[in-house]
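pls read this protein.

:::
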Amino acid sequence: MDKILIVQTAFIGDAILASSLVQTVLRNRKDVELHLLVRKGNEGLFKNHPNIKKVWIWDKAKKYKSLFGLIPTIRKAKFDWIFCVQRFGTMGLLTTLSGAKKKVGFRKNPWALFFDFKIDHQIGDGTHEISRNAMLLTPWLGTQPTAEPPHLVIGEKELNKVRTYADEKEFICLFPASVWFTKQLPFEKWLELIAKHPDQKIYIMGAPGDKLLGDNLISQTQHKNIENLCGKLNLLESAALMTKARMNYVNDSAPLHLASATQSKVTAFFCSTIPQFGFGPTQPDAKIIETKTELKCRPCGLHGKKSCPEGHFKCGREIEVPTLKS
């Protein structure tokens, strides 16, 4: 039985996508002991997964102190294989010093020289991130596997928490916030979207820091049945509510991947980024909406920016928001 550690300590969305790698491992080999290393704050996503032996945690706030406290413990665990999904140096160093019999990671990692197997990672050709990540398993399996969809396990505790909200006959969920300005559908477009759904119960969703945005949307709409849930639900509870919604409207951000990992209905708005980067929804019935105008400046970056470099933000402002029927 191989003892395996998957390393993905990036943002929430990246951790959710790493669940695809977990599922791909399990589909190909049942006789494994599977461990996962994530950034502190993301561990709750995997607490219900029956096939993950242990979720290891790296505290980014304590960076190297946390890292060098973690490495000896990982070495003692004596892993057979370590798959480093992260392409940055900190986790490359951990992988190098992990003591695992076989170390696999992407060639772009600064520590790739010390990996036993180095895999190419190419963004922009339309390949989805879950397929790029699945390539890491090729040296272990002896063949390149097909990526399984991301998957999160929602428990009874999460379903019970959202039961009151989910009892509404019909409702939609809006996730209006993003860390990056140019990945966030403009405020006035969210108001327009709300106005196009007068007969639906609407929940505005997000983190505690998104509450003000939700309050501002509610204060500027005439909608009679809208509620701000920002900060009231954790990630798995939010995912539980998403599974019951008629539609979830999201930016190119973590809630998009929550929808993919729970097979929830989703409409994703892509402003400055493009689906061809490989971070779009994975479910076949998902809807992607982007500007119909050919803009020479789009995409302006892989992760979005704090402001529009051109000053006009046409990639967001020219998006046509839908109704449930469109």
